[in-house]
Amino acid sequence: MDNSTAEFNDNFHSQVLSHKSSLEDRMIDPLYDENQELNTTITIDEIRRLIHGAKNGKACGIDSIPYEVLKYESVISVLHSLFQLIFETSIIPSIWRQAIICPILKDKTSDERSPLNYRGISLLTCISKLYSAFINSRVSDYLETNDMLADEQNGFRAHRSCEDHIFTLNAIVRNCPKTFATFIDLKKAFDFVDRDMLLYQLLLNKIDGKIYNSIKSIYVNTTACIRLNDTLTDWFSCNSGVRQGDNLSPTLFSIFINDLVQEVKDLDLGVSIGNSNLSILLYADDIV
Question: How far apart (Å, rounded) are the C-alpha atoms in residues 190 and 68?
């Protein structure tokens, strides 16, 4: 690795990936009376549906196994047994915690020397992403069925879109011309999620038992390396944030930030619409 590549790696790691949890020594154990909506036995139909829903041609992780290989019926049967074993024991392969980060320049006019101008695309193993997809499917269904997420959050939710919020905001501006709105884009929002706080939020929302243990296991001792000019750097620890490239991450982030909505609503500010007051709109980490 040449000096410029090594310097970029050090800067990218220190400025983007090395934020540490302020609660990293806190151990939070799952509840014993586990939520049956989330913790029932995995069915092979669940796994089959997720595998056939995965798109072909996606980049592989460190194991180089693509989705195409996993779609054979004989492999699906093996994966079902593997996933059920992992679900019961909460012991996952260490390779599932490894990510190859490919920095992509956000804007071609940006300073290429600044790591903050890059978006890190993480390549995870396809098998680990399928297991995360199983967890995400159950958690998302549970959240929606029980109305756990704030109605003001439209990010990564079925039958909701950013356009819905744009329509709402336009209607407010037309009817209340003196409306003042603040637009907030949280810097590196997914990267700076405190994992212990996230685990605590999961328990508060009765996301417990085996599903909780699985999520916790995924985030223990996570490591990554950076791919630069077809060269992989040394592996390093990632102590905070939800994993980029994992479809479970947006759901976890929505849970993490969900309390913000009530905090803002408690200020009793915003625009009156009928008998209610609208004071905040969210699309994942984009906030008005």
Answer: 29
